[in-house]
Write a structure and sequence with these properties.
It holds the Pfam family Abhydrolase_5. InterPro entries: AB_hydrolase_5, AB_hydrolase_fold. The chain has 243 residues and is of the alpha/beta class. 33% of the residues lie in helices and 19% in strands. It has an eight-stranded mixed β-sheet with strand order 1-2-4-3-5-6-7-8, with helices on both faces. Mean pLDDT is 91; it is low at 3-21.
Length: 243
């Protein structure tokens, strides 16, 4: 009887894991045409699609890079347009695909990117939503080249307040997932030197190329306006890391 109970419980665990894995692998709706357009190389930008999405300006050799962890149920390409635009300002940027679209299953992926690009002298690790949680876990034992942590609508799941790393948290006043209240309630887990940038009217989904229907009736600013605000804050942070 005990053996039957143990086998039954094991089967239930397997079924639950398969169900969760299947659910996480199905992405939130996003603008696939917009994402794919950003993945085309041209005279100004060299794009690699494997084993991650890497954007490098055709001119110059960037010495500062940004590694991005997408949120849950989100392909790396959803943030390709933003990563491409950041790269156009002279940085190497990488959006990392995660197993089953889950950053917790690929927390150390950043190290693979760093090892593959030895010419880059300093890195910022970034992430949106659950991707930011994964990035926060990585920086606990990050490579010495990692100088900054950039959180988009996110916060850490555990205490990293003792780190000397530079941190910027960008979030939206209209975010119904990573609400301003949640961002503030987790501030004690970040270093006391962490900076915060609230974008008025911004929501959770306009950080990436998600379908506009997700932001309908939520965001009070346009996708373009939110992206512009994110870009300004991000570029300022990257410039500060360069010194």
């Amino acid at each position: 009887m005990i053996k039957k109970i143990v086998i039954s419980l094991a089967l239930l665990v397997v079924i639950a894991c398969v169900g969760v894995g299947t659910w996480m692998s199905v992405p939130f709706p996003y603008q696939q045409d917009v994402a794919e357009k950003a993945l085309v190389s041209d005279a100004d930008m060299h794009v690699l699609s494997e084993p991650w999405l890497q954007f490098q300006p055709s001119e110059g050799n960037p010495t500062t890079g940004l590694i991005f962890y997408p949120g849950g149920k989100t392909p790396a390409s959803v943030f390709a347009p933003l990563m491409r635009e950041i790269a156009a300002n002279g940085y190497l940027t990488v959006s990392v695909p995660m197993p089953l679209n889950t950053a917790f299953l690929g927390i150390d992926k950043a190290q693979e990117v760093i090892n593959a690009n030895p010419e880059v002298q300093r890195w910022v690790i970034a992430g949106h939503s659950l991707g930011g949680v994964g990035a926060s876990e990585y920086v606990k034992q990050a490579d010495e080249k990692v100088k900054g942590l950039l959180l988009y609508a996110s916060y850490p799941a555990s205490d990293i307040s003792g780190l000397t790393i530079e941190v910027l948290s960008i979030y939206g006043s209209a975010d119904q997932q990573s609400t301003p209240e949640k961002i503030k309630s987790y501030q004690d887990l970040l270093p006391s030197t962490a900076q915060y940038r609230e974008i008025q009217g911004a929501d959770h989904w306009q950080f990436g190329a998600y379908q506009p229907s997700l932001s309908a009736g939520v965001a009070t600013i346009s996708h373009q306006a939110q992206q512009s605000a994110i870009m300004r804050a991000t570029l300022e942070f990257l410039a500060s890391i360069e010194g």
